[in-house]
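Researcher: Next entry in the queue.
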Amino acid sequence: MTTRTESVDTPAGEARVTWHPATGAARLVLAVSHGAGGGIEARDLRALAAALPARGVTVALVEQPWRVAGKKVAAAPKVLDEGWRGLWPALARPGLPVVAGGRSAGARVACRTAAGLDAAGVLALSFPLHPPGRPEKSRAAELLGAGRPALVLQGGRDPFGRPEEFPPPAADHPYRLVEVPYGDHGFAVPKKAGTTQDEVLAVITETAAEWLLELPL
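Model: Structure for this entry, 217 residues:
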């Protein structure tokens, strides 16, 4: 599998997309971006890019403009959304349905913009339901307002929101929530856990693959 990287001009600055093409006939594009504390080297994003192309999914790892510019602090939500909207035409260029995804802050961007961009779905990795220790500062409205089929993969130990803290899906706000055992916000698992890091990453990739291939496109 040959990856390629392209730069995309957006209203928020230059973004960068690293393409991991499907190894056979591609069914869709999964575009996933990083969070506010890291880049596309995150373990879950790397795992998706390695596993999904063999399942007919082209994975596009998106580096947001603030990260490409070498800044250490993420841009404001409005600016993040502008950048995501600005690079969407490049993501849609292959002519396939595009699922919007991201981890942490990137998941919030995907949720906020999905309906307006007519995304085929939303994959939210470690959705930051609230700041650590501040459950009253809920961001559930962003998830519930995505307006598209959504899958949330959430670590069982995530301080930004454990799975049991999430609101139940409703008929007009459907989403699927899957707990990633023992995972923290970065899906790291403690050594004393009854599972390995590779097994946890397999839960993420297999669950995502099954959900993506079941999407009505």
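Model: The first strand starts at residue 4 and ends at 10.
Researcher: Noted, moving on.
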